[in-house]
Amino acid sequence: MDNELYSKKFEKFYESLTANFADTSDIQNVVSLAVQGIAEDLKIGMLTADVNIPVSVRVPNGKNERYILYDSGAHSEEYKEFQYLTADGGRLTYQVYSIPDYEYDVEDDKILDFVIGIIAYVSRYVRIAEHDAMTAFTDSLTGCLNSNGLSRNGGLLFIKHDIADYASVYFNIKNFSYFNHVDRTKLGDEILKKFSIAVNAYIQNEEIFARLGGDSFVAFVKKERVDNFVDFITSMNIRANTNRGPKDFTVECNAGLYFAVHKDNISNLINYSAIACKYARNSKTYDCVWFRDYMIDDNLREKEISYKFHDAVSEEKFAVYYQPKVNLEDGTLGGAEALVRWAAKERIIQPNEFIPVLEKEGSIKDLDFYMLKHVCKDIRTWIDKGIEPVPVSINFSKIHIYNDNLAEKINKIITEYGVDPKYIEIEITEKSCTDDFLTLKEFMKAMQDRNIKTAIDDFGDGISSLTYLRDLSFNYIKFDKVFIDNVDNGSQKDDIIVTSLIDMLNKLGKCVVAEGVETKKQADFLKKVGCKYAQGYYFDRPLEKEDFVGRLENKKYDY
């Protein structure tokens, strides 16, 4: 090869290669034009490139294509191959075919290696530069648009198209914390990536899909496609790797929907569909909820509660009320349930106003531990004053069960206050069983190992299962009010169900507590069929701490 590397031709080749790229779509044309100027000197008959790009949100189906970058019309059958890795885990492979009857020597190989290396370097540089330019607008984990990209691309979309032609869909993956718990964050990340790739592939060119963080997504889709889109995202099968090998998962979503009108902007679309999604997450009936105007006022109240919560905790504005549990066998105080009230400046805020809000945002965990500490503090005070306490149950949200150290953390607090574990019971709702049965089973076993009693609350409010009764190592089970209400109505079927359940639980060594007892007839019936404890307004309303001390000092009830 009679060629001087630093010739005018090569200089022109380098300038042409580095100065003319607009984006990755130009790579083939620019390289082809640049190679034409040096192909004759380098004895190149044909230059091809294999481009292999892995599956991602930006390239949903991956890429595996061959490009002819230069073809003189005649070339040898033999070729030299050069391979380079790309930043996204792909590969660029170049094949250099000499002109007919020419065989590259060692010196030629060095020159070709240098030239092809420059082509590969510039190609990768352009891809990286394009990626960096998109970084501000794309999600680092999934590669789909982030909130900045949503605003930018949404603005461009609605310049070209009428915003009133679109629906906004805001959606969350149901029980996403489960995936992180199964295999730490690895499984959760893989689910997010594969879910995003699938949704992005379903989205059409004139629609937009973005991840806003965590497992929260939003899409602007054509109104006529919204039903099909919702069907697609609300139940999707994804195969992912776990620490025990590949496994198939059904990924389901809650979604909030909003139909845009002409006066709307992007913020409206996101906010209104997000508000509707909150309702979907709380709904027992619907996975998808359409936005309604009244939801705005509810959302403002929720934001106010969320904003004031942490100050209320630090200022100890939450008060513990104790609702007595009565031993039906001897009519004495046998225990109590700790209930929370928010003593705001203007009024006492009831739990049904703030508990659902704190559940949704996760702050309920702080409140649960606040209650545990204050109950332990009260019990310690009563003991120091010579007042014999009774066991007190504290409600813990189901979101705690994914904390592997939950049992130890509870035990540590009890120990810090010098309280005997026999005075503390932890209640978990029956619905927690359906979310992650195995994790709940591990938690209850850990509590049993520490001699701390547990209870299943609201039994009968969800889909009750005999599996829970057989396999979970709990001590108490609390019948939901729904079982008790019909006792006064003379329903023979309800009487048979309650009687049979109590008899079975007693034989299993579980202690039954009936909630919501409001009449003497209910109390007498429960005593007759072997229910050990009852609580409700028939005996006592939730009592302030000072009033409950009076009950501790006089534990006898007349009923």
UniProtKB/TrEMBL annotation:
Family matches, as CDD domains: EAL
Molecular function in Gene Ontology: cyclic-guanylate-specific phosphodiesterase activity
SUPFAM superfamilies, per the entry: EAL domain-like, Nucleotide cyclase
All copies of domain GGDEF, residue ranges: 164-294
Pfam families per UniProt: EAL (PF00563), GGDEF (PF00990)
Superkingdom of this protein's organism: Bacteria
Gene3D superfamilies recorded: 3.30.70.270, EAL domain
UniProt-listed InterPro entries: Cyclic-di-GMP_PDE-like, EAL_dom, EAL_sf, GGDEF_dom, Nucleotide_cyclase, Rev_trsase/Diguanyl_cyclase
Domain EAL positions: 302-556
Alphabetical list of PANTHER family matching this protein: CYCLIC DI-GMP PHOSPHODIESTERASE PDEF, SIGNALING PROTEIN YKOW
Protein name (record): EAL domain, c-di-GMP-specific phosphodiesterase class I (Or its enzymatically inactive variant)
